[in-house]
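Notebook p. 47: complex prediction with beta-D-glucopyranose.
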Amino acid sequence: MKDKGQDNNFIIYIIAFVAALAGLLFGYDTGVISGAILFIKDQFNLTSVIVERVVSAVLLGAVIGAAFSGAMADKLGRRRSIVITAVLFSLGAIGSAFAPSIPVLVLCRFAIGLAIGVASYVAPLYISEISPPDVRGALVSLNQLMITCGIVVSYLVDYMLTLGQQEWRWMFGLGAIPAVILLIGMIYLPETPRWLVTQGLIDKAKNVLSRTGRGRNADLEIENISKTMSDKKCCWKEVFEPWIRPALFVGIGLAFFQQATGINTIIYYAPTIFEFAGFGTHRVAILATVGVGVVNVLMTLVAIWLLDKLGRKPLLYIGMTGMALSLGVLGIAFHMTNLSGLLQWIAVGSVLFYIASFAISLGPIFWLMIAEIYPLRVRGRAMSLATVANWGFNMLVAATFLTLTEKLGKAGTFWLFAALSVVGIAFCYLFVPETKGFTLEEIEEHLHSGKGLRKLGL
Ligand code: BGC
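Predicted complex, structure tokens below:
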């Protein structure tokens, strides 16, 4: 089952690292707006409606990009799809930096959103298909690590540029550097052996396997991949076939719980919570937010270390329990009107604990699982569907958060997120499989057998 005997060529780490630069861009380009928007608003004298448009252009682009690119990853290939996103990322960054007006800026941010939508699922897809199973969890989650690094780097860039003049153009423009590195890197990286086999390019697939240190078992791997294929052309109808539905349900369910448990509102609320806890100035609050980002990065590293050892499900249980508890406590802190010194620190502690818990569970595992559980023939399309759901729920939470806090209060809202975390634990228990150590072909075979996806890894 495990390919431990294979020589784990160092090159596979380099390949995963380069592809994961797409994750860095995902994190950077979503994070950078929080600082940049303050200056754009002043310079162009924007109303809140226009501010909202500038901010949400990326989210809208991401939903549309993920929705319309499902067939692209299956038809054009994983590598070419990432190359296209790298071009979009580069043009979008340069365009935003030089944008003469707000409509041009919105258009460029929308283009970046399209790139994020595609890259957010094609990068984990590419890495998962090119990795050997015993390190697949760690390598795919390198993408999530890069997302978290991108968020921290964007905070730091925003912070440093605020010390000087109002340099929002640089904030956007700097995103072009990783984008161009990704572009150059992907031009030289190989296509995944699995996609090559779907195109009948067997020799090329063998060549990639031997370049990535798996030459000895290449014939067997190709035979296993070929077994999962059929002669029919793939189409959207196939994605919804009854045997694939349990995997669709798991992917969309995990997308829902990743977003509906409030990750992005916590990231957004962190400075407020820190100010509320007595960190006097604005600058200190922003620095403390950088601290949240750093915890996110560090705990993602812990997840990478544990995913292929402990497995996906134990981490989901541990992390989501931590999320439920910390959200519950955060709700209590917001419920009290007069916080004593100790309670203020408890509020700060729960934000950090929440981020840490997310980072070892739903953060990386959503993106990892959707790269593992779908059959090869529909993988690109099915992943794009789960990704659209993720960005859709992200937008929905962002759009309803303020109304929720008005109706339920802040405490009530955090308690709602806590309750959803508990439902999420039950969801994982009832429906989510353990994919640790299985090849993608074994996972597919199990799904096809109709034995119940959840039973995999029992
Ligand atoms: C989520 C993003 C979130 C980020 C935080 C990602 O896995 O999809 O919505 O902002 O993690 O680290």
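Notes: The chain has one domain: 4-189+228-455. The pocket of beta-D-glucopyranose is lined by residues 144, 147-148, 258, 263-264, 296, 363, 390, 394 (CB under 6 Å).
Next step: compare against the earlier run before touching the bench.
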